[in-house]
Amino acid sequence: MRFTAAICILLMFVGVFTGCTARECAGLPERLTLYLTGERRIITLTREEYLTGCILACTDPSFQPEALKAAAAACCGHALSVMNERSPAEFMGADLSDDPGRCPAWISPEEALEDYCAGQESTSRKLTAAVKYAAALCPEYGGAPAYTPVFRCSTGITDDGGLPWLPSLELPEDSACPWYSSTCTVPAEYARKALRECTGSVVLPPSPGDWFTDPEYTPGGVLLTVRFGDSEVTGEQLRHAFGLRSSAVTITVSREDMTFTSRGCGGNTGMSAYSAERLARGGMSAEEIFAYFFPGVAL
Questions:
Q1: Which residues pair with 43 in a beta bridge?
Q2: Which of 55, 98, 245, 266 has the most CB atoms in a 10 Å sphere around its CB?
Q3: What pTM was estimated for this model as a whole?
Q4: Computed from CA positions of residues 222, 295, 67, 76, in that sequence, does the dihedral angle turn out positive or negative?
Q5: DSSP letter string over the chain?
Q6: How far is CA 92 from the centre of its chain?
């Protein structure tokens, strides 16, 4: 199959790298284990396979080469920071997981490339270059691996990550991203049942319009918590319950229906891949893009 062949060619040319020579960071191991949360199993893969899946999970392979490289570097830093401080029992004993709430998002490269680009050689070349660029990197701040998350697009303003290299950034152009918004409209009774796993038995007011109250948002618009009757749910729980693209969720009620709308795609702290693409089209290098989102982090 041509898609599989393209992946084989991609990984063949990526090659094997020795990791960075930074003082306290050895870079990603040549082989690592990944816990697939949906399948509840652990797979073993090369770091090149891992980084390829991370890049495809947070970008579009049609992006500019420098944007792909910058995103790959961010994925590498995020993964290394998790591996540096995780407990041995986390992820069922694997090095990392594909849970984007904790680790870089990851998808199967073969499946992703089938959906995106039908195995085009130009795409394989760009991905190869991005993986080569990032595989030996060790993004650091103060001599330790730096947490450098990357996501598809922001709400228009990223949230401050509480670390010196994770500032809030205004990115109004992200609203033009095709992944920017998602909506789910369901009957109120369906919403109640969908949230039962999160809340258990819950006492709700008679009117669905009064079910959700007292929402708390970050400055970037991410929903932290909202009262649901006599219980409480998070924006992340709403995101998963209703298949939304982010936890920057707003809720509207019309008669007996509820509409859940999200802005942005993925997280909202760190690098917006969509804005990285815009900066690359403006002439920025991967290093300049990375520094824009993570000031002070050394590659």
A1: 34
A2: 55
A3: 0.86
A4: negative
A5: -HHHHHHHHHHHHH--------TT---S-SEEEEEETTTTEEEEEEHHHHHHHHHHHHS-TTS-HHHHHHHHHHHHHHHHHHHHH--TTGGGG-SEES-TTTS-----HHHHHHHHTTT-HHHHHHHHHHHHHHHT---EETTEE----EESB-SSBPPP-SSTT----B-GGGGGSTTSEEEEEEEHHHHHHHTHHHH-S----SSGGGSEEEEEE-TT--EEEEEETTEEEEHHHHHHHTT-S-S-EEEEEETTEEEEEEESBS-SSSEEHHHHHHHHHTT--HHHHHHHHSTT-B-
A6: 21
User: How far apart, in whole angstroms, are the C-alpha atoms of residue 222 and residue 154?
Assistant: 10
Tokens representing 297 are 């982090």
Report pLDDT digits (tens) over 199-223: 988 999 999 999 999 999 999 999 9
pLDDT digits (tens, 9 = 90+) for 28-44: 999 999 999 999 999 99
User: What gap in Å lies between CA 167 and CA 270, rounded to an integer?
Assistant: 8
What value does the mean pLDDT of the chain take? 90
Confidence band of 5 (pLDDT split at 50, 70, 90): very low
pLDDT band at 113 (very low <50, low <70, confident <90, very high): low
Q: How far apart are the two ends of the chain, measured CA to CA in Å? A: 37
Q: How far is it between the farthest Cα atoms of the chain? A: 63
Domain chopping of the chain, boundaries = 2-151+271-293, 181-263
Nearest residue to 273 via CA among 52, 69, 51, 47: 69
pLDDT of residue 114: 66
Show Cβ contacts of residue 290 under 8 Å, excluding neighbours closer than 6 positions.
Answer: 70, 73, 74, 139, 148, 271, 297, 299
